[in-house]
Design a protein that fits this description.
It is elongated and about 60 Å long. Helices cover 40% and strands 21% of the residues. The protein has 232 residues and is α/β, with parallel strands linked by helices. The protein binds calcium ion (CA). Calcium ion binds next to loops.
């Protein structure tokens, strides 16, 4: 699945190498040469993951990580720090400040891709192609198929593309209340302008699609707050 990855790196050769490898792996790479440019890009579009260089001119990488973690809109973005080999103290500090992982320069593209995959799997499972089972449903992102798990045989259910993404997000983030605006950011993409009531339309369609096996009850309305997927 294609993820948008923001590279914040002031050394052009390293930024270029990172972008080439990310695009080769099927991701979309966006580049910023410093923290200020990164902030502008993030205001425009939330990336799925950030590769953040520690030594940046102007605002340091650690300050940017802190800033992103303090803001509700950017709090959940996974961050992988890029550090120089000698900066042992920086690694500890960076992880304390909210980075999800770090990688030491120079690194192999293979190692970098493995780290990105591991961090996405942990922090943003809705962006991976892993099959997920939750609440009596089984969803396969790679083939876009959904089954209701039954004692005798699994029942295949039909979903539209938006309902599929919505259910995938719910199943990877169960038991939590998600506001309509948060669901729009996470499922539709935050740079897309859609009215909040669009969420209600797709929730109705999702429930209708899950009705035949009684799984529509998994999608709970939380009055005044939003929606929750109940796995139990
Ligand atoms: Ca640097």
């Amino acid at each position: 699945m294609t993820s948008t990855i923001l590279i914040v790196e002031d050394e052009p050769a390293i930024a270029e190498l990172l972008a080439i490898n990310l695009e080769f792996a099927g991701h979309r790479a966006v580049r910023a040469a410093d923290a200020e440019e990164a902030i502008r890009l993030i205001q425009h579009e939330l990336p799925d993951l950030i590769l953040l260089d520690w030594m940046l001119p102007g605002i340091a990488g650690v300050r940017l990580a802190e800033k992103l973690r303090a803001d509700e809109r950017t709090r959940e973005i996974p961050i992988i720090m890029l550090t120089a080999r000698s900066d042992e103290g920086d690694k500890v500090h960076g992880l304390e400040m909210g980075a999800d992982d770090y990688i030491t320069k120079p690194f192999s593209p293979k190692e970098l891709m493995a780290r990105i995959k591991a961090v996405l799997r942990r922090r943003a499972p809705q962006l991976t192609d892993d099959i997920i089972s939750s609440g009596g449903l089984k969803l396969d992102p790679a083939t876009h198929r959904l089954w209701a798990v039954q004692n005798t045989a699994d029942v295949a259910l039909d979903l539209g593309p938006t309902e599929f993404r919505l259910l995938h997000f719910f199943m990877t983030h169960p038991e939590r209340v998600h506001s309509r605006s948060y669901l729009l950011d996470q499922v539709w993409g935050d740079h897309v302008y859609v009215e909040e009531r669009t969420v209600d339309v797709h929730i109705r369609r999702l429930r209708k699609a899950l009705e035949p096996t009684g799984h529509d009850a998994r999608i709970e309305t939380v009055r005044g707050s939003g929606y929750r997927f109940s796995a139990r």
